[in-house]
Design brief:
single chain; mainly alpha; 3 helices; 95% helix; flat
């Protein structure tokens, strides 16, 4: 019973968030000054946190490369075992 109530509350929150987001985006689309302002704010935030963004992106790329190499080794091991 608790789980069902929790899911209903979660669904209502998601629904209201989506509805609010749709209203906000339709208002922003109607006013070009707001679009420009949001662009300026986004540019400022990217510039301010550029070092953190670059370092986290580099970490993600390195983790992806490590994962691919590990999977390649696993595949090579499986192929070697199947040949035996």
């Amino acid at each position: 019973m608790k789980l069902a109530a929790k899911e209903v509350v979660k669904g209502s929150i998601v629904s209201s968030t989506v509805h609010t987001g749709n209203k906000l985006m339709s208002n922003v689309a109607k006013h070009p000054v707001l679009v420009f302002g949001l662009g300026v704010v986004a540019g400022y935030l990217v510039y301010k946190y550029r070092k953190e963004i670059i370092s986290s992106t580099t970490k993600a790329v390195d983790a992806g490369k490590d994962f691919v190499l590990q999977q390649k080794e696993n595949l090579e091991d499986i192929v070697a075992e199947s040949k035996e």
